[in-house]
Amino acid sequence: MRIVKEAEQRRHEILDAAEALFGEKGFDGTSTNDILVAVGIARGTLYYHFKSKEDIMDALIERYGSRLLEAAQRLASDRTVPVDRRIVHVVMGLNVSGSGSDEIMEHIHKPQNALMHQKTQKMIINGLTPILADIIREGVEQGLFNTPYPYECMEMVIVYATTVFDGDLVELTEEERAARMRAFLFHLGRLLNLQEEQVAYFMQMLGGGEQSVPENS
């Protein structure tokens, strides 16, 4: 007996299979036939949902981004975690990896996918800024932070992080990256008027090292 599934369910089955295959064999190493076999569907069914393998990748990137922002929102809403720690949890949560996430990110960074890369950055900037800004506002109310521009502050932070630390626009050695991270966190401390121990915690958790922190005076 032929099983007819709802379109949305079938679409997710195709994406799940493609994500696993991309992670295992790579985007270029995966054929549409591989996806057909994994899902157990006819070619016409695949093309009903997606025009091409590239179209599948676009949908995976969109789903990947949505998952990142949903995870960020959950972490940001966890009031059992102190505000300053919550910021670190949200940022570190963006580095989650799934079965095919490494392949997805590698695909995004290919030169021919510059528009896709731009769309991904736009999604992160527009989606993550309000999430972090809400944490900053909460911290301001608690007297932990001091800024009249929580949204703009986080927007500047995210724009810098998604360009300089992205790896495409600015080529950095490991030593240069570490130096940029220290400078980034130091100036974040200035923007939010953080205490020295708060900046030191950010540096330790986000990979800036345990070096002494310049005073924010």
Mind explaining what this structure looks like?
This protein is an all-alpha fold and 217 residues long. The protein has a domain at 57-171: Orthogonal Bundle (Tetracycline Repressor, domain 2), CATH 1.10.357.10. 69% of the residues lie in helices and 0% in strands. The chain has 10 helices and no strands. It has helices at 7-25, 32-39, 43-49, 53-76, 83-93, 101-108, 114-141, 150-164, 174-192, 196-205. Helix 4 (53-76) crosses helix 6, helix 5 runs antiparallel to helix 7 and helix 9 (174-192) runs antiparallel to helix 10 (196-205). The radius of gyration is 21 Å and the shape is elongated.
Outline the biggest β-sheet.
none
CATH architecture assignment name of the domain at 57-171: Orthogonal Bundle
Figure out the total of helices: 10
| Share of helical residues | 55-70%
CATH top level of the domain at 57-171 is: Mainly Alpha
What percentage of amino acids are in beta strands?
under 5%
The shape, in one word, is elongated
Topology:
Elements: H1 7-25, H2 32-39, H3 43-49, H4 53-76, H5 83-93, H6 101-108, H7 114-141, H8 150-164, H9 174-192, H10 196-205
Helix pairs in contact: 1-2, 1-4, 4-5, 4-6, 4-7, 5-7, 7-8, 8-9, 9-10
Describe the structure concisely.
With 217 residues, the protein is mainly α. The chain has helices at 7-25, 32-39, 43-49, 53-76, 83-93, 101-108, 114-141, 150-164, 174-192, 196-205. Residues 209-217 have low confidence and may be disordered.
